[in-house]
């Protein structure tokens, strides 16, 4: 393909340069102090130092190739390794690989684009915009193809759309999709363009493969027709089919992804995502243990757990599988480890919750209260609000209602702090999640003890219906055991019909699971009947 020879190329470069050459932030963001302050306030998940460390070439990232403009064979190899890691959400190793590529060829514009994507994944947005600017400056020198110039422009268009004002986001998403269609027209045989279009079929311009549904499947299938071994398409089809409830298809692509990327924990983890929905709990645990071994080997090689987002998620899911299988000693090991993980991201505090929820579910209320009060001292507001909510639930279970109301007040304070922290397009959707699952749930449990418990029951049933309707991992990893906790709370509040309704929703999630609270209810019923029959 020609290098900067026609009007199409000139138009693309002009669009890129207007955005970049004055300021590392796009023009719209540079004029909006609110948005630039949002960017500055979002904590990065991985440090700048670790993302620049030297790294060797490896087969563990999986086979991936996208031809880019470079005369360096090593530069091309490191670029390919970088995009392979990107498609497995390994932001640190992707960035290290792209820096190595630039060390071989400082004019490799697409490596700067790769860095922008890696830094975006690590929520290091200032660095992301900087590397997009670098890519544009190299493009202005004529060192890119038509396609590469379009890729660079699309990278900027995506980031600009992410931080656009809410009323503009729908239009920005449509424009982004149209621009990717234009990329496909440039080279319909390029599978990477079809994968990008699948990502853009999600509800947000930030889509990166996790939120796909029917529309995305066709684009990933189109990519696989051009390259049947393209593991990025297999990865994203796991997410898409899981969201559609097609767990058989999700498992098929999960197996392909896991086999193609043997050295990445997330590739082994994703296969385990859907196996429980097929009743394959032991197989799911095997995959999660593979991911865990790879993750711990990675940490032993010198990257601290706080630098990598994936570990907490994997051990949470592993603990949930062990809980479903009744292996309580293993559950405690993983959930307690997750509880004490250091976190940076505004999401990371969520790993506080499984251990506290487990203690409550097992009736260890004093221990749950002690751990929750400890977690209330943590720096992340999400950890504090979870902890205050769980403290309130423990106090309710202990019959210390006035203290529970004090904990509820702290919960509301922490939730307001959390809303301020998440007042940005990256995390704003989390507000509804914690409002429903923590704030409202605590309010409902207190209201069950009052004079008008009907509204509280309706609130808890609505929460249960949401979990039961979920097709994704969240339904069984979080929902199944959260509902078991709440069923226990309903019984303690002398609301047996509510407990039965919550257990019924649990059976919708997992028909084969008999929760401990249900066994206790059945035993209580048998005992009562036996007492009635006595002469």
Question: How is this fold's topology laid out?
Answer:
Blueprint: H1 7-20, H2 27-30, H3 33-41, H4 48-51, H5 73-86, H6 91-104, H7 109-121, H8 125-140, H9 146-162, H10 169-186, H11 191-199, H12 214-226, H13 231-244, H14 247-260, H15 265-274, H16 281-300, H17 310-324, H18 328-339, H19 353-361, H20 365-375, H21 381-397, H22 401-421, H23 430-447, H24 454-469, H25 473-492, H26 496-509, H27 516-533
Helix pairs in contact: 1-8, 1-9, 5-6, 5-7, 6-7, 7-8, 7-9, 8-9, 9-10, 10-11, 11-12, 12-13, 13-14, 13-15, 14-15, 15-16, 16-17, 17-18, 17-25, 18-19, 19-20, 19-21, 19-25, 20-21, 21-22, 21-23, 22-23, 23-24, 24-25, 24-26, 25-26
Provide an overview of this structure.
- The structure is a single chain.
- The chain is built from 27 helices and no strands.
- The protein starts with 6 loop residues before the first helix and ends with a helix.
- Helix 9 packs antiparallel against helix 10 and helix 18 packs antiparallel against helix 19.
- It has four domains: 163 residues, Serine Threonine Protein Phosphatase 5, Tetratricopeptide repeat (Alpha Horseshoe); 96 residues, Alpha Horseshoe (Serine Threonine Protein Phosphatase 5, Tetratricopeptide repeat), CATH 1.25.40.10; 60 residues, no CATH class; 193 residues, no CATH class.
- The protein is mostly helical and 535 residues long.
């Amino acid at each position: 393909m020609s290098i900067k020879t026609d009007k199409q190329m000139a138009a693309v470069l002009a669009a890129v340069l207007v955005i970049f050459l004055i300021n590392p932030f796009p023009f719209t963001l540079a004029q909006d102090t609110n948005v630039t302050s949002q960017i500055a306030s979002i904590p990065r998940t991985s440090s700048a130092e670790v993302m620049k460390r030297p790294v060797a070439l490896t087969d563990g990232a999986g086979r991936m190739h996208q031809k880019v403009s470079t005369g360096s064979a090593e530069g091309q190899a490191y670029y390919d390794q970088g995009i392979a890691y990107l498609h497995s959400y390994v932001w640190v190793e992707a960035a290290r690989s792209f820096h190595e590529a630039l060390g071989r060829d400082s004019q490799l514009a697409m490596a700067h684009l790769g860095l922008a994507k890696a830094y975006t994944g690590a929520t290091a947005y200032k660095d992301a915009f900087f590397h997009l600017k670098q890519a544009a400056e190299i493009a202005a020198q004529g060192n890119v193809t038509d396609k590469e110039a379009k890729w660079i422009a699309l990278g900027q268009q995506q980031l600009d759309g992410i931080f656009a004002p809410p009323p503009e986001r729908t239009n920005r998403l449509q424009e982004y999709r149209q621009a990717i269609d234009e990329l496909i027209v440039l080279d319909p045989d390029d599978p990477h363009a079809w994968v990008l279009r699948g990502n853009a079929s999600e509800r947000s311009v930030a889509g990166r493969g996790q939120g796909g549904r029917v529309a995305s499947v066709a684009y990933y299938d189109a990519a696989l027709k051009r390259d049947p071994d393209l593991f990025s398409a297999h990865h994203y089809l796991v997410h898409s089919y899981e969201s559609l409830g097609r767990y058989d298809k999700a498992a098929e692509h999960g197996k392909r992804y896991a086999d193609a990327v043997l050295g990445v924990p997330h590739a082994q983890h994703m296969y385990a995502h859907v196996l429980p929905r097929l009743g394959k709990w032991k197989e799911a645990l095997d995959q999660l243990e593979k991911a865990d071994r790879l993750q711990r080997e990675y940490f032993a090689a010198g990257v601290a757990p706080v630098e990598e987002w994936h570990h907490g998620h994997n051990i949470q899911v592993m603990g949930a599988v062990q809980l479903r299988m009744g292996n309580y000693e293993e559950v405690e090991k993983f959930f307690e480890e997750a509880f004490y993980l250091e976190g940076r991201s505004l999401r990371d505090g969520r790993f506080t919750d499984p251990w506290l929820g487990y203690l409550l579910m097992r009736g260890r209320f004093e221990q749950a209260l002690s751990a929750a009060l400890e977690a209330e001292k943590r720096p992340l507001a999400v950890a504090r609000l979870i902890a205050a909510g769980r403290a309130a639930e423990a106090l309710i279970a202990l019959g210390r209602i006035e203290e529970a109301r004090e904990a509820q007040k702290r919960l509301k304070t922490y939730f307001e702090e959390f809303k301020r922290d998440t007042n940005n397009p990256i995390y704003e959707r989390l507000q509804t999640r914690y409002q429903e699952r923590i704030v409202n749930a605590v309010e409902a449990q207190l209201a069950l003890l009052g004079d008008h418990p009907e509204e509280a029951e309706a609130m808890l049933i609505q929460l249960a219906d949401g979990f039961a309707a979920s097709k994704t991992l969240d339904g069984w990893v979080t929902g199944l055991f959260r509902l078991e906790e709440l069923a226990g709370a309903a019984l303690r509040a002398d609301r047996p019909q509510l407990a039965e309704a919550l257990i019924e929703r649990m059976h919708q999630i997992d028909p084969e699971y008999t929760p401990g609270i249900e066994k206790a209810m059945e035993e209580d019923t048998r005992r009562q009947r036996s007492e009635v029959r006595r002469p």
